[in-house]
Amino acid sequence: MDYETPLFFHVMEYADAADRDVVDMVSGNPDWEPPEALRDGLREYADFDPDRFQYPASEGLSELREEIAARRGVDAAQIVVTNGAGEANYLAMARALERDAGDEILLTDPVYSYYPGKTTMLGGTQRYVAAGAEGQLDPAAVRAAASDETAAIVVNTPNNPTGAVYPAETMRELVAVAEDHDAVLISDEVYDHYDLSGQFASALETESTHRIVTNAVSKSMAVTGLRVGYVIFPPELVADAKSRHMLVNVATTRPGQYAALKAFRETGPDYYERNRELLRERVDTFTDALEAAGAEYTTPQGSFYVMARFDGYPGTLANVERLIDEAGVAGMPGEAFGDSRSEWLRFALVTPRVEEAARRLAAYFD
Hints:
The chain has 2 domains: 7-34 and 269-364, Aspartate Aminotransferase, domain 1; 37-266, Type I PLP-dependent aspartate aminotransferase-like (Major domain) (Aspartate Aminotransferase, domain 2, 3-Layer(aba) Sandwich). Helix content is 40%, strand content 15%. It has 12 helices and 13 strands. It has helices spanning 7-16, 36-45, 62-72, 84-98, 114-121, 139-145, 168-180, 238-249, 254-266, 269-292, 317-327, 354-364, and strands at residues 23-24, 79-82, 104-109, 125-130, 150-156, 184-188, 211-216, 229-232, 296-297, 305-309, 329-330, 332-333, 345-348. A 7-stranded mixed β-sheet has the order 2-8-7-6-5-3-4, sandwiched between helices. Helix 4 crosses helix 8 (238-249). It is globular, with a radius of gyration of 20 Å. GO terms for molecular function: pyridoxal phosphate binding; transaminase activity. Residues 21-359 form the Aminotransferase class I/classII large domain. InterPro entries: Aminotransferase_I/II_large, AspAT/PAT-like, PyrdxlP-dep_Trfase, PyrdxlP-dep_Trfase_major.
C-alpha cells in the first residue's frame, strides 16, 4: 500500500532550510496564548503523586468526558478522548468503513489533505464533490454523488482551507443524505471557536444515528502540541472505536487531559472572542494587501486561512518554493488541497508577522 506523506512537511522543511528570513504561514499553529487555566493545570500536575502519571482509562478521564458531554448535549459513554482531532477523524472514518455499508468516502474539493491519506490507509476509495467559489457545499451536489457504496461523507466546518462555514440547513441536509444512503456524516468541527460569521452549526444539532462529530482543544485553546481531542459516536458505533483506540494508542496524555479539563471549566467566552477579534484584524490586513497586489482571494467566514490566486502564478510546489526563496513568505500550494484550487496558494494567519508577509507579497507581485 502506498501511503501519502502530506506536503506540509516538505514545505516546512524547505522554509526552515532557506538562506533568508521567511514568514511562516504554512501550518495552523496559533501564535496566541493558551488559556491561563491550562497552564495552571499543567503546573499543578507536576506536583501530583506518581500514580497520577500512570495509564488513565483508555477512553479518557471520566471527568473530562462528562464535561464534554454536558457541553455538547450527549451521553459521556458516546465520547472517546483521542490524540487530537487527527486520531478522532481516523477513528470516525475507520468505524464508517467497518460497517460494511460501502467503501467510498465522499470528500470535498478543496479538501484538507489528511482526509484522502486516511482514506487510503484504511482501504477506502475517495470520491470528490466540488465546493463553490467561496467554499460553500451544495447538499444537492453531495446527494448526486452519493450511492450505495458511500460509507461516509467527511466535512470540515469552519473549513480548512477555504474558511467556509456551513449553515444549519446545509448540515441538516448532509445528515439526511447520509441517512438515505446508510452512510455516516463525519463532521470535523475543530475550528468551531473561530466562526467569524455567526452561522456555524454543529452536526450535533441534528439528531441522528448517522453522524459522528470530531473536535479538539488544539486550535480553540492554541495548543496543537497538547494532543487532546475527542470524537462523539452514535451509541451503536462507540464500542469498537474504543477498542481500536486502545489497540493503536492505549490512551491519551493524562496531564494534557487534566489541563484541558481545567481550561474548559475556568475559561470564559472572552478568551475566545479576543482570539476571534485578533483573527478578524489579520484577515483585514492580509486581504487588503492581496487586493493591492491584484490577487483574487477568499475572505474566510471562519478558521484562519486565506486562499489567494495571483495571475500567472499557479499554486504548485515549485512556485511555493520560489515564493520562499524570492519573497520570504511560506504558504501552501493549492494543489495540496485538490484539483479545483491548483491555481491558488493557501496562507495561515497564525503569525504576528501577517502585516510584514502582506507587504512582501504585495511588493513581489506588484
